[in-house]
Amino acid sequence: MNGTKKITEGIYWIGGSDRRLERFENLFPIPEGVSYNSYFIDDEKTAIFDTADISVSDQFMENVMACLDGKKLDYLVVLHMEPDHCSLISALVGVFPDVTVVGNAKTFTIMEQFFPEAKGFNKLEVKEGDTLSTGAHNFKFITAPMVHWPEVLMAYDEKTKALFSADAFGTFGALDGRIFADEYDYEKDFLDSSRRYYANIVGKYGMQVQAVLKKAAGLDIQMLLSLHGPVWRKDIAWLLEKYQKWSTYEPETDDVLLVYGSLYGHTKSAADAVASMLCEKSDKKVKVCDVSGTDVSYLIGEVWRCKKIVLMCPTYNNGIYPPMESFLHDMAALGVQNRIFALAQNGTWAPVTVKLMTEKLSLLKNVTIIEESLTIKSAVHKTDTESLEIFADAIARA
Known about the structure:
Helix content is 33%, strand content 22%. The chain is an alpha/beta fold.
């Protein structure tokens, strides 16, 4: 069944949604599914911007044939060579062997690594500022290296003022029969997924995202066409403001994220007590997560949202509780900055996790570690109330 959607005059969405995939990149849980966006240009010359993942191949090829309706395919423009977008390149060229494949030098290097037969493709190499005309539409290419692969291109259509933005401005989440962001309650339906997508996949490349945002600021952008998620045609400034915060590692809110690890429930009891006290001492919202039961990608998404991060965990084998250590590793790998941390530990005979977590967090840029820490010996008792209060006070004041 034809699953195309008209975006604007001469531009059609020809992608597909996957609601069966459990983990994106075999890492990140996506219970909300994911869309793979591809775009067809119906003009004097026809063009497709990126293919799609192999999981939606049948729908994609059916959409291509419906849009072409017997016409030849002139161009295949490859903005991004990650497999969830490039998997069907060889299959598409196999059906349309005379098509001209458009990309930059790095695009074709990577393409031949995935598809050795690409050496024989008809190719048009482009670089920053080059333009591809299909007739009424003129696409100006913008390089976006490391957002989030080195070959990434974006393309600005001078006719419709649409920016084809590769993975930038994308989100997890399948499309439910609607193609435009304003057809959804985006904050409810997509914002958390969009933040989690950005933080985990693009998060460490904030400097490169900033460079692209500066380029975008010089364009009159009326539409954003990402390779994942809905198309933006309204309130684009709202989304760009989110990306400005995320890419400069500025907290989105003043809320508190409290992440605990607990073997037998004692550290959890302390975490619940601290969370309750924080709610009494401050009007800021507190989000409490079990580091063992919450996928780290969700924790990273919350780190990008919240200003204050409270970490509470037991000592384990004279080290940091392993799930908490993995969380700390991800924060370092993704370059978390500009946050306030508060640390608490539990230990029956030799609690050391405050010291060890401090050492790891000290490697991050521009973070504050609250001097007042909390130590629990085995279990929380009434006699610990004062220590819990002092710890919560320090977090609330920070």
